[in-house]
Amino acid sequence: MTTRWMSILFMLIFLTSLFSSLAAQNPRVLMKTSKGDIIIELFAEKAPITVKNFLSYVDEKFYDGTIFHRVVKGFVIQGGGLTADFVTKKTKPPIKNEATNGLKNLKGTIAMARTSEVDSATCQFFINLVDNPFLDHRDNTPEGFGYAVFGRVVSGMDVVEAIGNTPTMTYRGYRDVPRETITIISVTRL
Questions:
Q1: Quick count: other Cβ atoms within 10 Å of Cβ 3?
Q2: CA 122, 124, 128, 131 torsion: positive or negative?
Q3: Residue 9 pLDDT class (50, 70, 90 cuts)
């Protein structure tokens, strides 16, 4: 084989490798908020149901104009289901809780919010401000099942922390509501 053909062959192998690694990358979304931008990487392989659900809401622009309605300093910021006038948006049916996927509720991860029922998550999510191991899956009881992590903040953690430091109040029966409305302007795929 000539040197020229060897070079072409190596180039083809390199390009094939490059394209396959790009295809295997996790999806990312840009969350534009009234406090700044947050880029989130989604773990589609570890949380396929949750990522598919989240991206369906993203693609339908469901999150656009919702708010972070719950901020607990040193714990989490939660949003994605209420409008600025505290109207709960109509959601799709709840999804299966994937908290058994091995992902942990570490600082900067995003997980699904839910009620006390294990498989009750719909659209609301929270971002962990600190490591919250007590939110991880411990067992299959309703108390120990945990909250499904499905991504992590890769850029804009300073924005997350700024939201997390916002003074809060009780409003319309909701506790830990930011005194300043923090809007999710849009969430789009990157």
A1: 7
A2: negative
A3: low
Distances, alpha carbon 79 to alpha carbons 50, 64, 76, 121, in Å: 16, 11, 10, 13
Distance of CA 181 to the CA centre of its chain: 20
Q: What is the DSSP string of 60-100?
A: TTTTTTEEEEEEETTTEEEEEEEETT-PBPP-PPP----GG
| Helices and strands in the chain: count of H runs, count of E runs | 3, 10
DSSP 26: P
Per-residue tokens: 179: 């005194």
Q: What are phi and psi of 127, to 5 degrees?
A: -115, 125
* Cα dihedral sign, 163-167-170-175: positive
Two structure tokens written together for 177: 């509501």
Triad 114, 162, 185: Cα angle to 5°: 65
Instruction: Report the 10 Å Cβ neighbour count for 25.
Output: 9
pTM as predicted: 0.87
Residues 85-95 have pLDDT tens digits of: 999 999 999 99
Separation between Cα atoms, residue 37 and residue 187, nearest integer Å? 10
